[in-house]
Amino acid sequence: MVKRVPEKYQTLGDLVTLTERQLRAAKLSYGHGTLNARDEAAWLVSHAVGLEPDELVESFLRVASQREINRIDSLIRQRINTRKPLAYLVGEAWLSGYKFIVDQRVIVPRSFIAEPLLECFSPWIARPGSVKRILDLCTGSGCLAILAAIAFPKAQVIAVDISKRALTLARKNVKAYGLDRRVKLIESDLYRSLPKQKFDLIISNPPYVDARSMKRLPEEYRREPALALYGGKDGLDLVDRILGDAANYLKNKGNIVIEVGHNRAAFERRYPGMNAIWLDSGDDPDGLVWIESCNLGLT
Ligand SMILES: C[S@@+](CC[C@H](N)C(=O)[O-])C[C@H]1O[C@@H](n2cnc3c(N)ncnc32)[C@H](O)[C@@H]1O
C-alpha cells in the first residue's frame, strides 16, 4: 500500500491524504473517536510516527522514514481487513482531550457525558465543591469515573461494572492517572453489590442500543463487547433499573445523568410525568437526560 507510493507522498501531510483516500475507498464506519476518514487518517498517521494527534499538523512537512511508512501501511491494512476500530489497533482512545488505554474488553470511549462532566454540569450544579461522592454505573474503561475525579477534585468516585474483564482494564487507566485513592472500582450488577450509601451525583453511560439497531450495527461496532451495547428491546432495560433504584442511592438534592442515545422518544413515552432535563451535549442534543432527585420522589 503506502510503501509503493511515489516520493511526493512521503511527507506526513501527504501520507494523511493518501491514508484518507484508502480508508474512504474501503467504506469503513466511524464513530470510535473520529467521525470521518480524514480525522481517522490523521490519528492513524500520528500514532504510527509517535506523535500525539494534536502535534501532527506542525509536522505535516516532515518527510516520513520508510519504517514509519511501513507502520502506517500495516495499520491501514489491519483497519481495512479486520474492521476493528482504530482505537483497538493502537491500544488507546481520546475522550475530550484525555487519553485512555483500551482493548476489546471495553467499548471505545465516546460518551457525550464527558464534555458537560468536565464543565461540572454547569449550570445544573451550582456549587461543584459540594459534590463529595459520585457513582459511575457501567464504567467500562473507567473513562467517565476518571474524568469525574478530575472535574470534581474533592470527590470520591465509585465506579461499577458487571464485567470483570472491563474492570481489569479500568484499573490500568485509574492507575495511569494516579487516581487509585479517589476512584474505587467495584464488580457489581448495577447497585447490587454496592454497600448502602448515598451519592451527590450518579453518572451512567449504560448499554442502550435497542434490538432493531443491534441487528444493523456496522462491523466496527460488532468488534465491541455486546454486553456494553445491548439495552434490551427498546434500549431502556438498564435505564429502567438505574432509575428504579436511584432514589435509594441519591442524596436529597442529588442528581443523576444518564446517556440514552437515540432513545429520547422511548424514554419520554416510558416516563411521561418525569421532569427530565435534556442536556445539550453538542453533537447529540437529545442523548443525555438529567434528573434531579426531587423528581425521583425525594424531597
Ligand atoms: C456503553 S458501555 C460504557 C462504558 C464507559 N462508561 C464509557 O462511557 O465508555 C456500558 C458498560 O456497562 C457494563 N454493563 C452492562 N450491564 C451491566 C450491569 N448490569 N451492571 C453493571 N455494568 C454493566 C458493560 O460491561 C460496559 O462496560
Structural class given helices, strands, pairing? alpha/beta
- Mean pLDDT, all residues: 94
The N- to C-terminal Cα distance equals 64 Å
Q: Order of strands in the sheet with the most strands? A: 5-4-3-6-7-9-8
Report the radius of gyration as a whole number of Å: 21 Å
| Total number of strands | 9
What is the CATH superfamily classification of the largest domain? Answer: Vaccinia Virus protein VP39
The unreliable regions are none
Number of domains: 2
**Could you please say which CATH topology of the largest domain applies here?**
Rossmann fold
The top-level CATH class of the largest domain is: Alpha Beta
**Biggest sheet statistics:** 7 strands, mixed
Number of distinct helices: 11
Order of helices and strands: HHHHEEHEHEHEEHHHEHEE
Shape: globular
What share of the residues does DSSP label as strand, in percent? 15-25%
- CATH architecture classification of the largest domain: 3-Layer(aba) Sandwich
Tag the structure with descriptive keywords:
299 residues; alpha/beta; Rossmann fold; 2 domains; two-stranded antiparallel ribbon; binds S-adenosylmethionine
